[in-house]
UniProtKB/TrEMBL annotation:
Annotated membrane topology: Single-pass membrane protein
Residues that span the membrane, as ranges: 68-87
Name of this protein: Bet1 golgi vesicular membrane trafficking protein like
GO CC aspect terms: membrane
Record key words, sorted: Membrane, Transmembrane, Transmembrane helix, Transport
Source taxon at top rank: Eukaryota
Cellular compartment(s): Membrane
Primary localization: membrane
Gene behind this protein: BET1L
Amino acid sequence: MADWTRAQNPGAVEEILDRENKRMADSLASKVTRLKSDSDFTSMTGLLTGSMKRFSTMARSGRDNRKLLCGMALGLIVAFFILSYFLSRART
């Protein structure tokens, strides 16, 4: 043990070590949270990239798929506006 630890009160040394341990645990917790959010972002990016590839493939194919694609896009837009209308009504 170092000389400075023998010269100080054992309770004070324990308190210093406890504070340092808590600081390091908080630092580790923040790093883990950051890594989890990075992982979530990476998986979401992969999902969006795959969706865009399928969307592009469908858009480049024949005329029937274009009609289906336009219908789906229109349906999603209408569903978005209906959902936003109901959510705004629920808040008031």
